[in-house]
Structures are given as C-alpha cells and as structure tokens.
C-alpha cells in the first residue's frame, strides 16, 4: 500500500495542520500549567488535581458530546471547539500577567487555573469525537488505516514539540509569554480550518431521542470484542502508567534538571511514539494486532518500572523514549481498530466512549499518580503503576484468548475491495 496515500488529499493535509496546531497548543499549555501550579504549591497532589479538574467534565459530557457530533456538521463543530479552547488559553494568559499575580493571592490564582482547566475538559469532550468523525469524511474508506496512522503521527509529533518548547519557553520567556504563544497557535488552527469545506451529515437518524442514541452507541461498543478489548487494555495502561503527570516532581526534586530538563523528559515518550508511528506508515502493523498490542503494553509497564527506579537523567529519558515507542504501537493498533470497525453514522458516539476509556484515563491517571505519590512517594508510585500495567496485560491475555488472535488484515482487504 502507498505509505503516502492519505497525504495525496489536499483537505487531509490541511486537517493535519489543524490537528498539529491544536495538539501542540494543548500539550504545551498543560505543561506550562503543571509547572506553574507545582511552583506555586510544591505539592504533587496539586498536579493530580489538574487532571481531575479536566476529567470530571470530559467524562460527564462525553456521551452527550458523541450524540451531538453524530447529529451535527463536523467542520463547523470543530471550529466551535477551537474557539472555546482559544478563549480558555487567553484566560490563562491573563491570569499569568505578572501584575495580576502580584495583586492576587495564591489560592485565587490556583482556583482560577483549575476553573479554566475544567472548562477545557468540556471542550475536550467534543473535540475528540469531532476530529475522529471528520477524518472519515475527508478520505475514502480504503485508506482509513493510512489516514489514522498519519493523524496519530501528527498528534505525537505535536506532543513532542509542544512539551519541548514549553520547557524552553518557560526558561527563556516565562509562563506569561508562553501562554501568549499557545493562544497564537490556537488562532492559527482556527484560520486554517476555514480551508476545509463543510461535510455532509451521514447519520440517517437525525433528531433521534438522545437516550436511544446513547444506548445504541454503548451497545455497539460493548458487543464488539475487538473495540472493547483494545479500549480496556489501553485504559488500564494509561491509568496506572501515568508517570508523566509527576515529571515536574522528578525534574525539580529527584533528577534536578530544571525547566529545560523537564521539557526533554516530557518530550521523550512522544519522540519515541512519533518514530514508531512514522515507521508504521511504511510498515503496517495490522497483522497479528492483538499480540502486538499485548506485547506493547507489557513493554510499556516495564519502562515505567525502570523510570521509577532511575536517578540518572539520561536513563530516565531512555526509559520514557522506549515507553513512547511502545505506546505508539498501541495507539496505531487501537485507532486502526476503531476506524475499521465503526460505522460512519456512529463515529461520534464510539469516539466519545473511546475518550472515556482512554482519553479521560490520562487525567484519571494523573490524579491516581498524584494520590499514590502523596501516599507512597513519587518513585514508588511510578513503579507501582508499572507493576499494575504488567499485571493487567497478563490477566487480559489469559481471560480473552480471542483477543490474542485478533488480526486486522481481512478488514483492511475488505475496505480496499469496497473502493
């Protein structure tokens, strides 16, 4: 298959630019927030609360958002999401103005940041299903796997550069102007999105009662063993492998590498994932997908254990890099399963369930890491998470033998034949 098939569609290239700008801005913003909050409080639990503030609205609104996405035009809905993010990033820019910080007490600043993060969780509940649904309207079915891989690769590349630039920008221009830069990227994404035409609504049940719609979406996910298995396995890995939420603690108090080292630590797993994903555009990994996913998550758990034990900066960077490379395999397999197994009219609802299982587990993982770090100590909490991840893989492999045998080659060939 042509590794550049999806890139031959102009709108898909614009879509990748929009996605890059948004993920870059979002990941950079999260890093800057983490740094600012830990600098204010010196309490690892406060980092966990950041995740909790985003996951509460993201989970609460997810199914409702999936229903709305399936009922509405996708391009304009994505515009509204980006506009909402821009307002939030501008609010964070204002609250970080030096004169404002001097005039306000620490609690007021902290609660304002948490409030804006909470609003970001609402936006996030819509943006994931919208992006997932829009991809399928830009490219033909036969290149869904290739498009999903490029989209995931773009996500990871932005996740590499966002944290890296955040670390350097905090060091050189400070938190305030870093927030201004984030706002600029969100506006750039909004402008680029105008170059994508509005898309048709493929759902034949426009106006369907919301609870009937949600019930249909949930029933589909929980009766599709391939989708359910992939989502569950990845959710547990992300939930217990949430070491990245504690990287500001490692950077400042364990490895003593400052803001620049913090940026490198944050970027390391995304670099590994991006390399894996770019490689998968040339060497597809949909054959024996079940085994590859299980092995990748097992390796991810081992990397977390090594990272938790390490007191050497470059060993820690290497462990995070490898964890990202393995997580990249997991992400490509999961996204390919979702694209191939989901009907067009249910993409919003399936993606919303995915956001609950996987996307929101990032924030729950951040909260779990903050709590366990408070109870066990930072390094012990990361090691505990790695052990739990490995244990989950073993249970999944034994309990679901059909998932071990999952192979997506036949699905890929069927979609190629349809087109």
From TrEMBL:
It is a multi-pass membrane protein. Keywords: Cell membrane, Membrane, Transmembrane, Transmembrane helix, Transport. One of its GO terms (cellular component) is plasma membrane. The keyword Chaperone does not apply. One of its GO terms (molecular function) is transmembrane transporter activity. Pfam families: MFS_1. It is found in: Cell membrane. The chain crosses the membrane at residues 12-33, 45-65, 77-101, 113-138, 150-170, 176-196, 226-251, 263-281, 293-315, 379-400. Its main location: membrane. SUPFAM superfamilies: MFS general substrate transporter (SSF103473). This is MFS transporter. It comes from Cellulophaga baltica 18.
């Amino acid at each position: 298959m042509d590794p550049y098939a999806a890139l031959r569609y102009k709108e898909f290239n614009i879509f990748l630019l929009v996605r890059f700008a948004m993920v870059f801005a979002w990941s950079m913003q999260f890093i800057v927030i983490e740094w600012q909050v830990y600098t204010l409080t010196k309490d690892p639990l406060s980092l966990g609360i950041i995740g909790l503030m985003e996951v509460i609205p993201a989970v609460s609104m997810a199914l409702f958002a999936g229903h709305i996405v399936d009922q509405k035009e996708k391009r304009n809905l994505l515009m509204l999401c980006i506009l909402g993010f821009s307002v939030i990033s501008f609010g964070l820019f204002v609250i970080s103005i030096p004169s404002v910080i001097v005039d306000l007490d620490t609690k007021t600043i902290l609660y304002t940041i948490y409030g804006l993060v909470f609003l970001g969780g609402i936006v996030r509940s819509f943006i994931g299903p919208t992006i997932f649904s829009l991809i399928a309207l830009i490219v033909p079915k036969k290149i869904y796997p290739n498009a999903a891989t490029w989209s995931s690769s773009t996500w990871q590349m932005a996740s590499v550069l966002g944290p890296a630039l955040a670390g350097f920008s905090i060091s050189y221009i400070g938190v305030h102007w870093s927030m201004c830069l984030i706002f600029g990227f969100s506006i750039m994404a909004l402008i680029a999105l105008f170059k994508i035409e509005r898309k048709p609504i493929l759902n034949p049940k426009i106006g369907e009662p919301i609870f009937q719609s949600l019930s249909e979406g949930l029933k589909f996910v929980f009766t599709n063993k391939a989708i359910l298995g992939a989502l569950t396995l990845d959710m547990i890995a992300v939930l217990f492998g949430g070491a990245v939420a504690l990287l500001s603690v490692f950077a400042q108090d364990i490895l003593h590498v400052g803001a620049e080292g913090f940026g490198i630590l944050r970027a390391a797993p995304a670099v590994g994932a991006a390399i894996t994903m770019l490689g998968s555009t040339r060497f597809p990994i949909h054959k024996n997908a079940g085994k590859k996913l299980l092995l990748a998550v097992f390796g991810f758990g081992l990397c977390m254990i090594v990272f938790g034990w390490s007191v050497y900066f470059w060993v820690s960077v290497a462990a995070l890099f490898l964890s990202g490379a393995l997580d990249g395999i997991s992400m490509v397999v999961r996204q390919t399963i979702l694209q191939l197994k989901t009907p067009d009219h249910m993409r919003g609802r399936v993606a919303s369930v995915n956001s609950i299982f996987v996307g929101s587990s990032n924030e729950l993982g951040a909260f779990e890491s903050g709590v366990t770090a408070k109870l066990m100590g930072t390094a012990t909490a990361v090691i505990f998470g790695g052990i739990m991840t490995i244990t989950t893989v073993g249970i999944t492999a034994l309990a679901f033998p059909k998932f071990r045998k999952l192979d997506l080659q036949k699905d890929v060939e069927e979609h190629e034949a349809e087109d």
